[in-house]
UniProtKB/TrEMBL annotation, chain A:
Belongs to the binding-protein-dependent transport system permease family. The chain crosses the membrane at residues 7-27, 47-77, 89-111, 123-147, 188-211, 231-253. GO terms for cellular component: plasma membrane. It comes from Desulfoprunum benzoelyticum. This is Molybdate/tungstate transport system permease protein.
Automatic annotation (TrEMBL), chain B:
It is an enzyme of class 3 (hydrolase). Its EC number is 3.6.3.-. SUPFAM superfamilies: MOP-like, P-loop containing nucleoside triphosphate hydrolases. Residues 1-231 form the ABC transporter domain. GO terms for molecular function: ATP binding; ATP hydrolysis activity. SMART domains: AAA. Keywords: ATP-binding, Hydrolase, Nucleotide-binding, Transport. It comes from the Bacteria. This is Molybdate/tungstate transport system ATP-binding protein. The keyword Flavoprotein does not apply. PROSITE patterns: ABC_TRANSPORTER_2 (PS50893). Signal peptide: none annotated.
Length: 261, 345
């Protein structure tokens, strides 16, 4: 495409507008607090604990998604069965449901008035106002991203490779671990990043289930409500910086070659 | 011996129906058919990679229909080789060893022998992405052979190769088949490949086997217009039969024996049709006057189309002969073929 073509110029203009739309508030956010204020915020134990909790719960949600989502992603990528589209639609539901609704829905089954909530209570598992509750919510909102990303990655691995592996004597599980998984690992990583990113940004559902212990987005909201913009911005900056570093590191690992096979 | 009895497979809209085959132990069997006829589905069903809906498959009398692929002792080699891209050539070849209990010394010796025989020793540390088509083919073959399966299924192994490699691999396959004694089951849509490699063959069309038997027999007696067309017979005509005569419109053609049906088809290979400028005085019983209505360049040969009353015969003529005879559109020509060259079905 020539750089003088009107279509090229229009695309370029739109690109500039979109980038400005994304970057302007973020740059403003990152540059607003003074270095002294940022240092002071970092020394605040509550901020440190909230960011750590955010990262740990998001990582736990990604871990759970990895364990239970990987077999399901494989099944959806490799099998054709009646009702498959329905299952895929159900998996996508958490993406489209408003966040507070997710919290209320989980509360509905985890509360004392539901048999599941009663059973969990008898087992000593508390959802309301607990880290377990936060992980439950984050897994709920993050798992569709992991499953969908990995499903696409597995679909990109030729089934013929698995067929050959099995014809050489490898059982199905061995074929998965020696062929499919090593060839789809970048998708696994990309899926985990997507899941983590979605989980770490969750606020609406968490605030319904567990205001305390406080994750970073809830702390930022609380500081904003109680003290205003100037007090919430430094916490937000630290959350953005920590997340950005983590995701950049993971993203670099997934960069070379997107197609597995 | 592999026996396939009444096998059926359903895959969406496509169906394999009532497949019956018997493949001798240690034979080189070829499955042929046009694209979309169900060849790959059949071989994947044999290997246990697609579920069957009817019938059974047995090897030496042992029913393997419900066995998982890894317990069938049927190796598979795809047209695109399906080498594991994350493993080296050596890693690919030895991939299946851990699932087979073999003496390590014997396996090592066999590995060395295989890589030497196939000429891939220098490639062992390379990744599949850096190999040529022929090298990938040899690696895939070594991988399938090292675990010593009872049967090796080859899905169009030569079609992705250029002419030079094709000849080379064809010879290699023949040699390996002769030395290993493993039953080879090859899928192809190239009849000339089958002629040079196979002992037995089957021809598929639209999910069914339409002809099976010895390869020369199929070539000589196709049995149906589809098979005749598939094996390269060009002069296929509907005809009515009476005694040892076939009537084709106003043409009466002498046939080698009386046919059991009143109607059917006759076919004559283009290379069995002799053309001359004058009637020949010979033992040839079928000789008709006609005129050339088309000449098609086929590389070393010309395909000459000759109108004889209601039919158009095709004959293959060398370019030198065409020049000597002065063949051109409209040239009056004599079409001759022996009674034994007429195939009836």
């Amino acid at each position: 495409m020539s750089r003088r073509e009107p279509f090229y110029l229009m695309s370029l203009s739109c690109g500039v507008v979109v980038l400005a739309f994304i970057l302007l508030p973020l740059v403003e956010l990152l540059t607003a607090p003074s270095p002294a204020m940022l240092r002071e915020t970092l020394q605040d134990k509550n901020v440190f604990l909230a960011i750590r909790l955010s990262i740990c719960t998001a990582a736990a949600a990604a871990g759970i998604s990895f364990i239970v989502g990987t077999p399901l992603a494989y099944l959806l990528a490799r099998s054709h069965f009646r009702g498959k589209h329905l299952i895929e639609a159900i998996i996508d539901l958490p993406i489209v449901i408003p966040h507070p609704v997710v919290g209320i829905a989980i509360l509905g089954v985890a509360g004392k008035n539901h048999w599941l909530g009663q059973m969990l209570a008898e087992l000593g598992i508390r959802i309301m106002g607990s880290t377990t509750g936060i992980i439950t919510v984050l897994t709920f909102v993050g798992i569709p991203f992991y499953i969908n990303t990995l499903k696409s990655g597995i679909e990109a691995v030729s089934p013929r490779l698995e067929n050959v592996s099995r014809s050489l004597g490898a059982p199905m599980w061995s074929t998965f671990f020696r062929i499919t998984f090593p060839l789809a690992w970048r998708s696994v990583l990309a899926g985990l990043i997507m899941c983590c990113a979605r989980a770490i940004s969750e606020f609406g559902a968490v605030v319904v289930i567990a205001y305390h212990p406080m994750i970073a987005p809830v702390l930022i909201y609380e500081r904003y409500e109680a003290y205003g913009l100037n007090y919430s911005q430094p916490v937000a900056v630290w959350l953005v910086l920590v997340c950005l570093t983590l995701f950049l590191l993971l993203r670099i690992l997934t960069l070379p070659g997107k197609k597995a096979a | 011996m592999i026996e396939i009895n009444g096998l059926g497979v359903e895959r969406g809209e496509f169906r394999l129906k009532d497949i019956n085959l018997t493949i001798d132990d240690g034979g080189f069997f070829v499955l042929m058919g046009p694209t979309g006829s169900g060849k790959t589905v059949l071989l994947e069903a044999m290997a246990g990679l697609v579920p069957t809906s009817d019938g059974n498959i047995a090897i030496d009398g042992r029913d393997i229909t419900r066995l998982p692929p890894e317990r069938r002792s049927i190796g598979i080699m795809y047209q695109d080789y399906a080498l594991f891209p994350h493993l080296t050539v050596a890693g690919n070849i030895t991939y299946g060893l851990r699932y087979h209990r073999h003496d390590k010394k014997i396996t090592d010796k066999r590995f060395r022998q295989l890589v030497d025989d196939l000429g891939i020793r220098h490639l062992l540390n390379r990744r599949p992405g850096t190999l040529s088509g022929g090298e990938m083919q040899r690696t895939a073959l070594a991988r399938a052979l090292l675990v010593e399966p009872r049967v090796i299924i080859l899905d169009e192994p030569l079609s992705a190769l250029d002419q030079r490699f094709r000849e080379e691999i064809r010879l290699l396959l023949k040699q390996i088949h002769a030395t290993t004694g493993i039953t080879f089951f090859m899928v192809t849509h190239d009849f000339s490949e089958a002629l040079t490699l196979a002992t037995g063959a089957a021809i598929m069309n639209s999910g069914t086997i339409v002809r099976t038997g010895a390869i020369r027999d199929i070539f000589q007696r196709p049995g149906s217009s589809f098979v005749a067309d598939f094996v390269g017979m060009k002069n296929i005509f509907p005809a009515t039969f009476s005694g040892t005569t076939a009537t084709l419109g106003s043409l009466r053609i002498e046939i080698p024996h009386a046919h059991h049906k009143a109607g059917g088809y006759i076919a004559i290979r283009p290379e069995d049709i002799v053309i001359s400028l004058k009637p020949l005085e010979s033992s040839i019983r079928n000789s008709f006057a006609g005129s050339i209505n088309g000449i098609v360049d086929q590389g070393f040969l010309y395909e000459v189309y000759i109108s004889v009353k209601d039919a158009t015969f095709i004959s293959l003529v060398t370019k030198g002969s065409a020049v000597d005879l002065g063949l051109d559109i409209g040239t009056a020509i004599q079409v001759c073929f022996k009674t034994s060259a007429v195939h009836i079905f």
